[in-house]
Every structure is written in structure tokens, then in C-alpha cells.
Amino acid sequence: MFLKNSIGLIELGSIAAGMQAADIMLKTSDVELILSRTICSGKYMTLIGGDVAAVNTAVEAAVQTLAYGVIDSMVIPNVHPSIFPAIAGHTHVDLLEALGIIESFSVASMIEAADAAVKAANVQLIEVRLAMALGGKAFCTLTGEVAAVRSAVDAGAYVIEQKGLLVNKVVIPQPRQELLSEMI
């Protein structure tokens, strides 16, 4: 895991352009490659970390060079620490209070939304699922008290709505506990 607190991501509609974007970002700035892979449906994503200025420069260079294939991109200067375990699927949850779900058409906007959600209210991020076996979409799940989950979901959904990429947002008060075993 990298030691800096800024992350950036570029999501492209071409696998070849995605690999090129990863190379551009790594050659442009002193950043660390966190994740670089194909995603559904024939897209490619690269997630980097480092100092804010380096991450901004790297993402901007890739976006400018490959503008034709960019689906979405983002930079989060002070990413919430719960984002990484949620992306990796290593979050442990024993009890679902209220369940919040945010769904997006892009990976980049989903990570931004999950970060905004956990910063907006006292909730626990369960998972951030990124476009694998989802037709290119992404979603996150979180839990906590109903009011906190509503605030978090609204904050996260707002970020995605600004890009026009929101699929849906849902808050389920008192969900059945069986849902937890189906989620992770």
C-alpha cells in the first residue's frame, strides 16, 4: 500500500489506450501504480497514488493525450482510508443497520462518491465494486444508522449526478441480515 494520501484514476473505453494511459501517468510524475486492469465491458482502468501535485499532473497528462478514449477520470486529494479495504473486499461487517447502495456508470465517479459518502456521515463502507461482471458499472454499499446512511448516500450520489453518471441510489432501513452474506 502506498504512503501518500492522494489517488487518481483514469477509465478508458479502449484496452490499448488504457495501457498507454498507465504508461503516460507513470512516466509523467512520481506516482505509484495501485491498480491497472481491464474491466467490463472492454474498458480499462488505472488507479495511481502519490502526492496531490504528482497525481494531478499524471492524470491530466493522460487525459490530455488520450482525450478521445476517456470515459471518466478523477483525483481525490485526501482519500478516506476506508476506500482501499472496500475496493479490495477486505471490510468486515457483523451487522447491517441501514443499508445504503449507490450505483454509477463509471468506476471513477464511484470511487469519488464512496469517498464523499464516508466523509459526509458516520457510516461504514462495506464494499466498492468496480465494473467486474457488472457491464461496466460500479457500486458501493455502506451501513450505519438510517439518518447517517441517508446523508452519506445523498452526498455520494450528488458527486455522480454532477457527471451525469448516476444509475440509482437506495437506502434500506432494517435490511434482512441475509443480505450481508450475499454482498461480501
Description:
With 184 residues, the chain is of the alpha+beta class. It has 2 domains: 6-76, BMC (bacterial microcompartment) domain (Alpha-Beta Plaits, 2-Layer Sandwich), CATH 3.30.70; 83-183, BMC (bacterial microcompartment) domain (Alpha-Beta Plaits, 2-Layer Sandwich). It contains 6 helices and 8 strands. It has helices at 15-28, 52-65, 83-88, 107-120, 146-162, 178-183, and strands at residues 6-12, 32-39, 43-50, 70-76, 98-104, 124-130, 138-144, 166-172. A 4-stranded antiparallel β-sheet has the order 2-3-1-4, sandwiched between helices. A 4-stranded antiparallel β-sheet has the order 6-7-5-8. Helix 1 packs across helix 2 (52-65) and helix 4 packs antiparallel against helix 5. The longest helix has 17 residues, at 146-162. The chain is globular. The two termini are 22 Å apart.
The ordered H/E elements are EHEEHEHEHEEHEH
Main β-sheet, spatial strand arrangement: 2-3-1-4
What is the overall number of helices? 6
Q: Give the amount of beta strand, in percent.
A: 25-35%
Q: Rough shape? A: globular
Low-confidence stretches: none
Percent range of helical residues: 25-40%
Instruction: Supply the CATH superfamily name of the largest domain.
Output: BMC (bacterial microcompartment) domain
* Main sheet specs: 4 strands, antiparallel
| Average of the residue pLDDT scores | 91
What is the total number of structural domains? 2
Structural class: alpha+beta
> What is CATH's topology name of the largest domain?
Alpha-Beta Plaits
Which CATH architecture of the largest domain would you pick?
A: 2-Layer Sandwich
